[in-house]
Amino acid sequence: MSSSHTAPSTTKIAWPSSRLEAWKYTDLDQWASKISRNDGPLTPSGWQGQPHDLLDLFTELHNAEPLFPALDELSALIHAARHGGWHAHIPAGTTCDTPLRLLYAPSVTEGWSGFTHQIQVDEGAKLTLIEEFDEGRPEGNNTEKSALQESDTTPVEKMNLHNLQVHLGRGAKLKLIRLFHGPAAKALVHQIDALQEEGSKLEVQTISLGSGMIRNNIHIQQKGDRCSSTLLGLSVAFGGGHLDQYSRIQHHALEGNSHQHYKAIAAPNSTTIFNGVLRVEPHAQQTNAYQRSSNLMLDPVSLAQGHPLKPTLRSGKVNAKPELQIFADNVKCSHGATMGKLNTESIFYLQSRGLSFEEAQRMLTLAFAMEIVDQLEDEVIRNKVMAHLDQLKWQ
Amino acid sequence: MLEIIDLHASVDDKPILKGLNLQIRPGEVHAIMGPNGSGKSTLSHVLAGRPGYDVRGSVRFNGQDLLDLAPEERAWAGLFLAFQYPVEIPGVSNTNFMRSALNQVRSHRGLPALEAGDFLKIMREKAGLVQLDPSFLSRPVNLGFSGGEKKRNEIFQMAMLDPQLAILDETDSGLDIDALRIVAEGVRKLRREDNSFLVITHYQRLLDHLRPDIVHVLMDGKIVRTGNDTLALELEEKGYDWLKAELA
């Protein structure tokens, strides 16, 4: 199955301004300007689903109306200029025991493509959706550039933008498990806009890794009472990668629950960003919200071992910004953000047992990542993530 | 095996070791005693290659210039430090840690990597040596271990890596009497004619089990007295003040 093609009406795009707080660390206009051939004809890249008995739930979307009006400028922009997408409707009471898998084919064209997807889970229905965005495969295994690559000079060959609208009916349950793999010269923007009705449960597990640019937005509106949203994430940036994880959870109703745990690793010359907005509206009493962000910055070996820094290599960079806006008085909200480097005492301990500095760094970094990887609820994705991490050179 | 000549070490321009000399031959067990702050732990750190020290002097280990080697190269060459405060490493299991470490050490000693089955067999055997519960092997390194369990884990690692020279930095501190006996027995069983031990301790009790060949007293960054195991007994009985007075 592949998307059909609707050419966007305009090639001049008004990207969200980096003056907006939500886009402070990722300037889409700048990324788009690096697209090496952005004046050519726009052609869509494909997406495909693996065979599944739910597949007939999907229909072509390009003429479909959105599930709800776009929540922000970016989703409106993607919708207006989309090349295709899919739509899934899980009828009331349906329980899908087998997860639905979607594999987004790697881009074959240059320029940018926009996709709008929709998923409607009706009252009491239940679904697990597993998505892989793997831009890395066409070039084989040698797509990971070394840390010496200077990100600022890398032209962007391809930018894909996806908007996924999610509507969860009363008591509906949706679990989304996603792997984003973005090699150098690829830019990927993904935005979830989710509306939750009473008693619904949304879980989103996200792994982003790469040496390209990935911006991941998760916008959740808890409209009904007693909703629950659980977000888990790991970002691993290396080789000049720029991975930006943005979440915005809005509690509008009573006894809402949200739980977020994100980790990020920024290898030398790379950047990760975490921005978590939590907004508890005045009527959202007895909200229970928790947000945790743990960030690891890796030093180049030369710096960590006290040698002069090579001019082209800098330590990994992390921006972490929790934003809690609480307008209700009877709520429980907590958050924690930490950032740091590997413990030198631990590195020395491992070295003293015969592991090289690089191996010690690798072992400790993987251990940091595994806390999240172990919680991934899909074995296929978990194994792929582990395979990616295993072969990574952290320097 | 180990020859230290005029070793100086300082941290942030504060001198700690001030011209230390020491020679250890194969098969010998040496004990270093000394009051707090005399430089005992610094000596162990400097020998193992911990960063942060400004070091001068000469240390030869089996003919190699030890001070020129990275910490892992010292481990490959056959040096082992049992830490006074073993480090907790969340997320890394003891088994994976030891498999990586042992295979690294073996490859640098010209030995093939171990098959999984052989590795597990050796690991169980060495864990038994210090009565380390096998369940600890699958747990993250030292995480949530009691003080005694951590020290047993150090000796277990030592047994796995089979060093030529093992430095035990206050391995007896924080151990109850039974744990001390188990650890000491473990070390004693590892003694051979071709390996040596440098035991840093405050107490006679560990030395009762290990029977050192030579006992040194370290004070103010230098070895001020060397004798046999009766020196340790004398110190246990009288403390260090008489020695200080004698030296003054």
Order of strands in the sheet with the most strands of chain B? 6-9-10-3-11-12
**SSE order of chain A:** HEEHEEEEEEEEEEEEEEHEEHHH
Oligomer: heterodimer
Q: Tell me, briefly, the overall form of chain B.
A: globular
Could you give the distance between the termini of chain A?
39 Å
Helix content of chain B: 25-40%
Question: Could you give the order of the helices and strands of chain B?
Answer: EEEHEEHEEHHEHEHEHEEHH
Strand order of the largest sheet of chain A: 1-4-6-8-10-12-14-16-18
Strand content of chain B: 25-35%
Gross morphology of chain A is globular
Low-confidence stretches of chain A: 1-11, 37-52, 138-153
Largest sheet of chain B: 6 strands, mixed
Distance between the termini of chain B: 33 Å
Low-confidence stretches of chain B: none
**What is the number of beta strands of chain A?**
18
The secondary-structure class of chain A comes to mainly beta
Short account of what is shown:
The complex is a heterodimer of chains A (395) and B (248). With 395 residues, chain A is mainly beta. In chain A, 14% of the residues lie in helices and 39% in strands.
What does this 3D model show about the protein?
The complex is a heterodimer of chains A (395) and B (248). Chain A is mainly beta and 395 residues long. Chain A has 6 helices and 18 strands. In chain A, the strands form 2 sheets. In chain A, strands 1-4-6-8-10-12-14-16-18 form a 9-stranded mixed β-sheet, covered by helices on one side. Chain A is globular, with a radius of gyration of 21 Å. Chain B is of the alpha/beta class. In chain B, strand 9 (165-169), helix 6 and strand 10 form a beta-alpha-beta unit. The mean pLDDT of chain B is 92. Chain B has 9 helices and 12 strands. Chain B has a 6-stranded mixed β-sheet with strand order 6-9-10-3-11-12, with helices on both faces. Chain B has helices spanning 40-48, 71-77, 94-108, 116-129, 147-161, 177-190, 204-210, 229-238, 241-247; strands at 2-11, 14-24, 29-33, 54-61, 64-65, 79-82, 89-93, 140-141, 165-169, 196-200, 214-219, 222-227. The interface between A and B is medium-sized, with 24 and 31 residues.
